[in-house]
Amino acid sequence: MINKVFPGPLGHENNPRLISMGKQTAEMVAHFLPTAQPTLVKSNYGLVELSPGSIWSGDNLLVYVCPEEVFFTTGDTLHSLSVQKFIEERWPVSTLPINQENNEIVLVQDEKESLQSIFVPWYVTLGLSPAKIGLFYSRNHDTLERLLYLTPALLQILNTCRYRYHKLFMPIPSSTDAGFAINHLSLKCNREGVAYFIARLLKNPQPPNKTLGAVERIVSNTIAIVIKTIDALEKLFYMVVSYNLTKIVLMYLFPPAGALMPWVDYETVKERAITEYSEYLAARMGEEGYFLSQSEATEILRDLVNDPGTILKLRDLEGLLIRFIPIIKHLHTALYQSN
Fold this sequence. Notes:
The chain is an alpha+beta fold. It folds into 2 domains: about 15-110, no CATH class; about 140-339. The protein is about 60% helix and about 10% strand. The chain has 15 helices and 8 strands. It has helices spanning about 25-30, 85-90, 100, 110-115, 120-125, 130-140, 140-165, 165-170, 175-180, 190-205, 210-255, 255-260, 265-285, 295-305, 310-339, and strands at about 15-20, 40-45, 45-50, 55, 60-65, 70-75, 75-80, 105. A 6-stranded antiparallel β-sheet has the order 1-7-6-5-4-8. α5 (about 120-125) runs parallel beside α10, α7 (about 140-165) packs antiparallel against α15 and α11 (about 210-255) runs antiparallel to α13.
């Protein structure tokens, strides 16, 4: 939003005045709540402090307070009401802070600022009202902050690996658990892109250890197969060199015997070994619902083996996934339990 004032005249309505609905409500909450300050107002109960960021039963969130008017959400609608009417009819306890009486919450300033980039993505993706988003964030504050800290690095390396090793990642079907997690990744690592990525994982009824866990299994299995292939090729190289040296010596010392030994081409042996090990790669992918032909698996493994940075890059991705998955799984459980 560009305007920094609520639409419509401020008045003394006795009934709530509808300001916005749906996504626009989430946008307005994200815009106004971070800068809204607690305000002391006069009422029939004396001076009462109204704190924006207060959440109470009935899916209500206090968004903004003016001297004469209060703005609050109920579900995904934003209303305004005169201060006096609001305190008489809506404020749960006029003489006590809301969280003391109802065991609910009042978002502190840093929580309101953090939620600014979460309200719209989570409303759109998860279908949660601003109040429920605020409750979920506050009750899982530390876990969510760790997730928000890790996600940009995970998104960046997922996108890097997806394009650097596109033959491995790009064809993974969206219908598979791994495909759900990595297809249509946000290319932006800003807070909004991060919020959409987290919300998408939370929305899926399948727990993240199934979706992102499938990616982690693909990565770890691929690392293991690439390492075994490289190790086998290294041994083959020395065997081929030793064999060809033996032929050279025999041709010099015993020409007839040396002539009987064929030359061995390392590239041919290497290609045969890669083809054999690619069968393991195809099998591991099949376990995650990603079915490769023998030629596709061979092409993928050949590219990975010939890229010196493969193991380091995939291990970086594996390490981030191992840290990330338990955190998002915990939040996924918390979200579905609360619903």
